[in-house]
Task: structure prediction
Amino acid sequence: MNCNDVMDRIYEFEGNSSLPFFIRLHIWLHLLRCPGCKEKIEKLQTARTLMKESFFPPAPGLEEKIMQSIAREGLEEEYPEIAGVSFRSWVVTGLIVLISLSTSFLGMDFIKVADNWGSSFLLPVGITVGAVVSAYGALFIGSHLKELSHRFNLR
Result:
């Protein structure tokens, strides 16, 4: 066994005494010849004992914050409007954005600008409108994946 095999076996069976006898024998023989692996295993055992003891100091307010976060997450799944902006607000805002972008072509100033610049002005305007609508749609869908998949039975 080389050093990598020994360390892989140690990590694979860490804390588990069901390591086969012959593999334990190979590891023991390798550790007699290799001081580098022996040092690594001693450091690993030291780290394990430190982690088993009270290495991390207790955080008195942490438990309450975690439990509040878990309770809030359960409410957000049951009542999605608690999570922030509601589904209805997203749809209404999206419709307002879409209507305002599409009616901007009907204004008097746009007609003057289009006459001055010609049809070459329509390409950047179309790209801008498409980018805004696409970005808004992506944000909307990304923030409401659970609700949309439940609504359209996509589970």
